[in-house]
Structure prediction request, 603 residues.
Amino acid sequence: MMWRVARSAAASLRQSRRLSTAIPGPCMVHKRGADILHDPWFNKDTGFPITERDRLGLRGLLPPRVISFEQQYDRFMESYRSLEKNTQGQSYNVVSLAKWRILNRLHDRNETLYYRVLMDNIKDFAPIIYTPTVGLVCQNYSGLFRRPRGMYFSAKDKGEMMSMIYNWPSHQVDMIVLTDGSRILGLGDLGVQGIGIPIGKLDMYVAAAGINPQRILPVMLDVGTNNQKLLEDRLYLGLRQPRLEGEEYLAIVDEFMEAVHARWPKAIVQFEDFQMKWAFETLERYRKRFCMFNDDIQGTAGVALAGLLGTVRAQGRPLTDFADQKIVVVGAGSAGLGVLKMALQAVSRMTGPEADPHFFLLDKDGLITKERKCVDPAAAPFAKSQGEIAELGLSEGASLLDVVKKVKPHVLLGLSGVGGIFSEEVLKAMRESDSIKPAIFAMSNPTANAECTAIEAFQHAGDKIVFASGSPFDNVDLGDGKIGHVNQANNMYLFPGIGLGSLLAGARIITDGMLQAASECLASYMTDEEIQRGVLYPSIDSIRDITAEVGAAVLRSAVAEEVAEGHGEVGPRDLSHMSKDETIRYVKENMWFPIYSPLVHEK
Ligand SMILES: NC(=O)c1ccc[n+]([C@@H]2O[C@H](COP(=O)([O-])OP(=O)(O)OC[C@H]3O[C@@H](n4cnc5c(N)ncnc54)[C@H](O)[C@@H]3O)[C@@H](O)[C@H]2O)c1
Ligand SMILES: O=C(O)C[C@H](O)C(=O)O
Ligand SMILES: [Mg+2]
Prediction:
């Protein structure tokens, strides 16, 4: 019965979308005149029709000619293309920051146009608003700062957060991305300047998942910084004090989480770029109480696992052979351990709880074994025993080169944050891999921190490899008309769908099952033909489509695990009656799309 209501609501939505170019639904605005022009959410610049200018007190505040949305779009793209032309030959940093500035100015002025150009040109613009340029933006944030975006909660706000949260102007917030700036990409502690990451991630939420930009909130939790250079920088915009530690630190995060939950109980909080100790600890602390997840641990794991399963298919082997794959993971931080934990769960599902996978884990001190004095508890399950490695001629702390030479792994996966660590010698050693298609995943960000470049990988490890990197690289010309395909193994293929699916499910919490469903959905998205060509992930051009599918998979899993409480008028029973296709349709119909709506003034 209820589902019929939902269906008819969905049908009317579909109807209004079809008609949307002609008569989009109205949007209530409580402002008039110049206040509207200065609000990027409502502003249409020269696109305000004459009648609207009359109704909203805008007449005379704009040049007389009305410019259509399409013309505004073309005008922006022309200025962007001429900026590209005019900056040719200049350094990467100068060009990237110039591109970021022009996009950011549009973002500050007219959100509808901004998100439309971002969505339509995601392949060109993701590398600017997301990795790698976002890293450069964070490094230079205090100098680039012009207008605030998002919220800042600092150690000085202790005891005030419950009231501060009400300073945010939107009545409803669906998606929050939170960082404390302690491990920004592979760039280390950037303190308050890390706010660029939540902003970039939420831009991806809007572009890929169609989360309404009025309902997103980027948040910086400024508990100080241990970056001496920033502490000494007179322009640094954050607290000039060492990071809070221990209970003092947790008290700040607790207070923030309580404040968010009090105002928006259904908001989803994505933890991003926290240093390892807090990444794991906060995940365990909050995941049963709030609807939250840690993208670096859980989103990354799902994307990596999907890619790893793809490499098994690429070898023409059944998926169950994943249990026999030899995988060397370089980097035992939040990302590397997240990947291994999820990979272990996958092997256990295939072989039973006594699973004995062939995983080798290295950190800055080399191969991690049980001989190691202090092994992090999260890394302990992956520490090798002397017996296991002695026959390979390896011992505690063995170097990466030694490990690759002796193990002959099917997969070499880097999440170390150390640029170039897959040296020529290491890559050449991968030629002796036991796989017919050795896989090299250089997943660290941004580009300069990638363990190797795409060209280096194909040049040294050979044409047969499958390659993936966290930040984008161009495909590699292998000669004779052959192309070495470059995949982008980045959590952007999952986090928007995890957030969207959890939101539309009205999930109480985000379970391992929901994350597994997301990963499996991504893994099965690729056809055999694509996989054979070394294409493990979809093109970023189809990110909205894959996100809808992932969102639906997450939603269905939330229903199956009985953590779905429903969203808006669609209750859990309605959700449970939806077929897979209906769920995908429901998700797609709930994705926001940038279009000018008629503004109606309401006092
Ligand atoms: N592609 C993606 O989607 C994705 C997702 C998450 C993180 N990352 C990237 O992964 C990197 C690591 O992130 P993290 O959160 O795990 O960081 P982290 O600081 O928690 O862990 C880094 C790990 O690398 C190890 N390491 C450092 N130097 C090393 C060396 N020379 N050899 C071997 N290991 C070394 C450290 O000991 C540590 O175990 C970052 O660059 C981040 O941008 C990428
Ligand atoms: O931000 C990214 O591009 C991926 C990931 O979350 C990272 O921390 O590197
Ligand atoms: Mg991250």
Q: What stands out?
A: The chain has 26 helices and 16 strands. Residues 141-290 form a domain with the Rossmann fold fold (CATH 3.40.50.10380). The chain has three domains: 141-290, 299-312+319-491, 494-603.
